[in-house]
């Protein structure tokens, strides 16, 4: 829950009345006190609905075995907080191995997507050759194909390649996504040609122009691609569920589902497992959120 | 201008080297599986048996398969239930977080947390919330309503899954709307305010028309996603699809029939083809409705 901890100081939910003269909207007009109070009230309400369930899960994961987690009315704060459940998850399923598998898959996905879509995006946006339009069309078509519909054929393809039940098999189908290629293409299209021209005059070849000049100019989009790639791989459920059958190869999502099925009677364990799965993502998002919102906003405005 | 033509002149082979990894991956794992899904739909292929061409047999069997109709019904209900909520609620949320008041960045990121959290985590959290002994029921009991079988009743289960989908999607569509709202000309609002329009009137007369194309985009995206729902229902109802499988969706059916060593690849592919056709139809329907309204 580090996002909450970190962002809390900035939130400053001071009583609206005290800020009456300070707060103004984007056109510099003063916001009336009652309107501001109403806004904060609604914001806190939505906050409770969106973040509340995570806090409840965190609280459940910290409750000890003697504490009644089914009490009515429910108690939010654990009476005697303990990390015992986190130790027990690790005794029940190899949760750290699963997390490591997820991390491997996610890291591989980030690297392949960043490299692959930057290269392909550059080729689509900046290079001239016969068949460029056909190549672009291939990526557009691939973007429109619903993954859920082709998943059985992907499964048989993996079987034929002998990659079923391997982490490589988990990574491959999404390792360069068409959407990311098109995102990179748009980013490269928006760069002015002049800088590359200067490098060309100085004798830089294609590779040097790509690596030294074009790529550093699209870092923002590259960051968005990296975040999407990480989240997509870390979160994916359907594909690993289909391709992995050996419990020792499970990623965290599949492992958690397995944990839920086997030990559904101990909610504290499941809660601890889910916190282990979600905490890295929230931490990552908290660190990169500024980049993220800017990148997404830019993309949406341009698109 | 003459400079740029210089940059565009390339060695003949290098552009393809740049594009090759991407083309290879999408060719092998997206475009080829798409083509083979369509081809497989006309065969009786199984996981371990190559199978033969059987014409329309799979589709004829579908018509008589109760499970297929249950799946089609649930996936369709999902669209009907989820899409209106995902078109309207995130817009209201975007209006709420649009104004730059102190702490608003915190609220924006906090509202985005459910999007970031993986679907399995979200599913497990909600199973615990809606459990017979979970938080929601404990609260309901405290206020004297009594416990409700959110996860044991066929229809309540579907409704619960829809709630989870909406809850998880709110933040995502909120961001899309925020970008759209940033482009609404301020003068329109001011003119309407001068004319004496209240906030509700201004919302309906200024904001909604200005973000209409975004609403169409959200409707298209969310309806396609809703029709293909898998994880939410799978996690809340279990692999078998709730009581008597009554909560099975089409993609759950694809997963169930097509995988494993005895998987009926051909039959599952036929269901996938139905999924393709319906999603394309949904997109066209939304876009068509948009064009008609515009003219």
TrEMBL record, chain B:
It is a multi-pass membrane protein. Pfam families: BPD_transp_1 (PF00528). GO terms for cellular component: plasma membrane. InterPro entries: ABC_transporter_permease (IPR051393), MetI-like (IPR000515), MetI-like_sf (IPR035906). Residues 72-286 form the ABC transmembrane type-1 domain. It is found in: Cell membrane. It comes from the Bacteria. GO terms for biological process: transmembrane transport. Keywords: Cell membrane, Membrane, Transmembrane, Transmembrane helix, Transport. Its main location: membrane. The chain crosses the membrane at residues 16-35, 77-97, 109-129, 155-182, 203-227, 265-287. Belongs to the binding-protein-dependent transport system permease family. This is Sugar ABC transporter permease. It comes from Streptomyces chromofuscus.
């Amino acid at each position: 829950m580090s996002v909450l901890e970190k962002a809390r100081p900035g939130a400053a939910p001071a009583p609206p009345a005290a800020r009456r003269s300070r707060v103004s909207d984007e056109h510099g007009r003063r916001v009336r006190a009652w309107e501001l109070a109403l806004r904060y009230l609604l914001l806190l309400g939505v906050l409770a609905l969106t973040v509340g369930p995570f806090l409840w899960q965190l609280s459940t994961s910290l409750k000890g075995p003697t504490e009644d987690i089914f009490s009515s009315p429910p108690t939010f704060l654990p009476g005697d907080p303990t990390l015992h459940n986190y130790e027990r998850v690790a005794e029940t399923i190899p949760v750290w191995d699963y997390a490591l598998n997820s991390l491997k898959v996610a890291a591989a996905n980030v690297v392949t997507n960043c490299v692959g879509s930057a290269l392909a995006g550059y080729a689509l946006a900046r290079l001239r050759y016969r068949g460029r339009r056909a190549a672009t069309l291939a990526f557009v078509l691939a973007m429109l194909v619903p993954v859920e519909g082709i998943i059985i054929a992907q499964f048989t393809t993996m079987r034929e390649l002998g990659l079923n039940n391997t982490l490589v098999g988990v990574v491959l189908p999404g390792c360069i996504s068409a959407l990311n290629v098109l995102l990179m293409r748009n980013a490269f299209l928006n760069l002015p040609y002049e800088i590359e021209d200067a490098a060309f005059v100085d004798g830089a070849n294609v590779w040097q122009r790509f690596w030294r000049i074009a790529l550093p100019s699209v870092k923002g989009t590259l960051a968005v691609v990296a975040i999407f790639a990480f989240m997509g791989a870390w979160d994916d459920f359907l594909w690993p569920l289909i391709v992995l059958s050996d419990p020792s190869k499970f990623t965290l999502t599949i492992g958690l589902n397995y944990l839920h099925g086997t030990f559904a009677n101990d909610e504290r364990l499941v809660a601890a497992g889910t916190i282990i799965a979600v905490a890295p993502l929230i931490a990552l998002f908290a660190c990169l959120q500024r980049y993220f919102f800017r990148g997404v906003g830019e993309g949406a405005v341009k698109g | 201008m003459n400079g740029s033509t210089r940059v565009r002149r390339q060695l003949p082979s290098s552009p393809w080297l740049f594009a090759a990894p991407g083309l290879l991956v999408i060719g092998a794992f997206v475009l080829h599986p798409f083509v083979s899904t369509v081809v497989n739909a006309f065969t009786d292929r199984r996981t371990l048996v190559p199978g033969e061409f059987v014409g329309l047999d799979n589709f004829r069997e579908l018509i008589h398969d109760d499970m297929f109709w249950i799946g089609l019904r649930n996936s369709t209900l999902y669209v009907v239930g989820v899409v209106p909520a995902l078109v309207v609620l995130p817009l209201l949320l975007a209006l709420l977080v649009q104004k730059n008041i102190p702490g608003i960045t915190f609220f924006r990121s906090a509202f985005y947390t459910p999007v970031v959290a993986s679907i399995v985590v979200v599913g497990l959290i909600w199973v615990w919330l809606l459990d017979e002994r979970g938080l929601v029921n404990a609260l309901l009991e405290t206020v004297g309503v009594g416990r409700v079988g959110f996860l044991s009743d066929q229809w309540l289960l579907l409704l619960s899954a829809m709630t989870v989908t909406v809850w998880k999607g709110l933040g995502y569509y909120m961001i899309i709307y925020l970008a759209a709202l940033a482009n609404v000309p301020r003068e329109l609002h001011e003119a309407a305010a001068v004319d004496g329009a209240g906030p509700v009137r201004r919302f309906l007369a200024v904001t909604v028309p200005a973000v209409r194309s975004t609403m169409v985009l959200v409707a298209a995206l969310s309806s396609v996603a809703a029709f293909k729902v898998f994880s939410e229902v799978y996690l809340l109802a279990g692999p078998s699809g709730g009581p008597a499988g009554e909560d099975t969706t089409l993609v759950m059916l694809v997963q169930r029939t097509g995988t494993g060593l005895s998987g009926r690849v051909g039959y599952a592919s036929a269901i996938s083809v139905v999924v393709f056709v319906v999603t394309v139809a949904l997109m066209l329907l939304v876009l068509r409705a948009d064009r008609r309204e515009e003219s």
